[in-house]
Design a protein that fits this description.
5-stranded mixed sheet
Length: 286
């Protein structure tokens, strides 16, 4: 079963929220909920160019794309715990009027990614990484038969069990099986590209790469430790031990069979993984 009390979970990546009364109350309750719409922005076509001018930005393009549909593994790793802060957004291109001018602009902007456009001139659905306004990587975050075959097999087996038991709760949760690893893989891919784009040996002026300010960085580290149930001065061994126990606690296999319970479990797993990775990076653990 999932733990009945869980550490504070961010509602926004904005530093103002860290110091807000709502944040302090959530910390005291230990049951704060992350509002993904506060981290992932819904963008109009007119807002995209200004949005991607940030040092790092990831945008999901696709029909019906909303902040809720943005893969949570990417949100946790890049939106909650990352330096530099990665701006996250979505564009629902079913709401875009694909005029000749719009198609031309989009193709010109994404031409170096070598992605295939459909007959309407729309780019493929997926996640696009921009560095200082330039597109540098694309990832579909789609399930891969070779890498996610085990998850797909489990999905089929679970669907069969749901059919036999006539359990609609299991049946509705089946589509989530197999997609989680794909999102996590996309998050790792983008993180690797970002690190290669900003070599540690490269002197980067602060105005070009504004990292989190000291207060925000300290708060992110505190929240990372809090998600693992630890004090900020916890040892490396304590971090490793707590991480293992937390992952076991929030694993989807131990959650309820409803769609909402499975979703909460996978989100919490993403938070724990991202918190552990952030602590390791900041502290230099291996």
């Amino acid at each position: 079963m999932l733990p009945r009390r869980w550490p504070c979970r961010l509602r926004s990546s904005n530093a103002d929220y860290f110091n807000s009364e709502a944040s302090m109350q959530a910390t005291q309750r230990g049951t704060g909920q992350i509002d993904q719409s506060g981290i992932v922005r819904q963008l109009s076509v007119g807002e995209v160019m200004g949005f991607i001018a940030a040092p790092c930005a990831v945008i999901k393009l696709g029909p019906g794309a909303t902040p809720v549909s943005f893969h949570y593994a990417i949100t946790a790793k890049l939106g909650l715990f990352h330096r530099p802060r990665v701006h996250l957004g979505v564009v629902d291109y079913s709401q875009v009027e694909w005029t000749g001018w719009v198609r031309g602009i989009v193709k010109a902007k994404l031409q170096n990614l070598a992605v295939e456009f459909d007959s309407e001139g729309r780019p493929p659905t997926g996640y696009y990484l921009f560095i200082r306004g330039s597109p540098v990587a694309f990832h579909s975050a789609a399930v891969d038969l070779d890498q996610d075959g085990g998850f797909l097999f489990a999905s089929v087996a679970t669907a069969f069990i749901a059919h036999v038991l006539e359990d609609q709760g299991i049946a509705k949760a089946v589509p989530q099986v197999g997609t989680w690893a794909a999102g996590s893989r996309a998050a790792d891919f983008f993180e690797d590209v970002i690190e290669k784009s900003f070599p540690k040996t490269e002197p980067i002026p602060e105005e070009q790469l504004p990292l989190m300010n000291a207060d925000e960085a300290d708060e992110s580290l505190r929240l990372a430790y809090e998600l693992l149930g630890l004090a900020p001065n916890a040892s490396e061994d304590a971090v490793r031990s707590s991480y293992r126990s937390r992952v076991m606690e929030c694993h989807p296999d131990r959650a309820g069979r409803s769609v909402s319970a499975q979703a909460r479990a996978t989100e919490r797993t993403a938070e724990v993984n991202a918190a552990r990775d952030y602590i390791w990076k900041v502290k230099g653990y291996r």
